[in-house]
Amino acid sequence: MRIGLITSDPGHQLLADTTALLTPRHEVVTLDPAAAHGTANHPDSPDALADVYLLKARTPRALTLARALERRGAPVVNSAAATGLCQDRTAMAGLARRAGLPFAATRTVPALGGLAAERLGGPVVVKSRHSRRHDLVARADTTAALRDLAAAWPDEPVVVQDLTPNDGWDHKLWVIAGTVFAARRRSELAPDGPGPGLPPALGELPPVWRELVHEVGSVFALEVYGVDVIDTGGGTPLIVDINAFPGVRGQVGAPRALAELALRTAAHGAPHRRADVGVLPVPLKPQVNEGRTGP
User: Fold this and answer.
1) How far is CA 68 from CA 42, 52, 149, in A?
2) Three-state DSSP string of the chain
3) Domain ranges across the chain
4) Distance between CA atoms of 276 and 218, rounded to whole angstroms?
5) CATH value of 105-162 in 3.40.50.970, 3.30.1490.20, 3.40.50.12780, 3.40.50.10320
6) C or N terminus of the chain, fewer CB within 10 Å?
7) What's this model's pTM, rounded to 2 decimal places?
8) What is the rounded CA–CA span in Å between residue 37 and residue 166?
9) Angle 283-286-291 from CA coordinates, rounded to 5°
10) Over its length of 295 residues, how does the chain's per-residue pLDDT go in tens digits?
11) By C-alpha distance, which of 107, 52, 89 is closest to 244?
C-alpha cells in the first residue's frame, strides 16, 4: 500500500511512529501543502495518487490539496469537508447543538473590538472563530480584562462562551477509528493557571462519556478527532471544543490504531459518513484503548 501524509511536519510523534509501523512493508510519502505544487507528488501527476491520505495539516492550502485529491477519487482521512467544519467554531457549535450534543452555548462576534463597550455579567471564554495555530483562547473575568483583549485583538472574529463552573480540569478525549484515548490536564483557564496532567484513566470514564465521544464522531463524520470536555458535576460532560486529527501525543496504541485505519481505508475506501443532522448516523460501537503496542 501507498500511504500519503498531508503535513508540513512528518516528524510529528504520532506520524513518525505510525510511519515506523507501516514501513518497510508499505510506502509512506509526504505531501507538504506549503510546497506541493511543482513536485513529483503533486496530485495532478497521474501516477502520484496514494491509496489513502492522512490529513494532519489544517491550513487553507492543506484543505485545498485534500479536496483536489478527493476529486480524483483518493480517500482522505479526515475528509476535507469534516476538517474544514472543525476549523470554524461557529459552524461547529451550531451543528453540535442542532444534533443535541451538550456543547457550550456559543455566540459569534465579527470583531473582538466590538466587545470593548460590553459590560460582563460574569466570566467568559473568548476564542478565535477560526481555529488555527496560535489562535486566541483566553478567559476574561472582568470588563477591564475583556477590554484589554479587545485592544490586543481588535479585528479578530471570535466566539464567546460563558464560563461554566467545573472541576478545573480539561478532559481530553481522542478517538482513532473508534478506539478511545484520554488524559486530564489542569486547565489553562483555571484561576491559578495550567498545571501538570494526570495519567489517563480510561477505566474511570463513565459510559456516558464514551458514548458521547463516539456520537461526536458520527455527527461530524470524523475518524481521527479530539473532544475537549469539562466536568460540570451533572453526569454528562460539557463539550467546549472539537478538533480534527489532533496530536494524540504519548498515547500507547495510538500509532497502531492509526496505521490500521490507514491500511483499512486504503483497502476498502473511506467510510460513507456525512456531517448531516437531518438523519444522524448510528454512533460507532464504543471501544476502549487497551494499551496495545507493536505493529
Assistant:
1) 10, 13, 38
2) CEEEEECCCCCCHHHHHHHHHHCCCCEEEEECCCCCCCCCCCCCCCCCCCCEEEECCCCHHHHHHHHHHHHCCCCEECCHHHHHHHHEHHHHHHHHHHCCCCECCCEEECCHHHHCCCCCCCCEEEEECECCCCCCEEEECCHHHHHHHHHHCCCCCEEEEECCCCCCEEEEEEEECCEEEEEEEECCCCCCCCCCEECCCHHHCCHHHHHHHHHHHHHHCCCEEEEEEECCCCCCCEEEEEEECCCCCCCCCHHHHHHHHHHHHHHHCCCCCCCCCCCCCCCCCCEECCCCCCC
3) 105-162
4) 9
5) 3.30.1490.20
6) C
7) 0.85
8) 47
9) 145
10) 999 999 999 999 999 999 999 998 999 999 999 885 544 455 555 457 999 999 999 999 999 999 999 999 999 999 999 999 999 999 999 999 999 999 999 999 999 999 988 898 899 999 999 998 889 999 999 999 999 999 999 999 999 999 887 777 778 899 999 999 988 876 666 555 555 555 555 667 788 889 999 999 999 999 999 999 988 877 788 999 999 999 998 888 999 999 999 999 999 887 655 444 333 333 333 333 433 333 3
11) 89
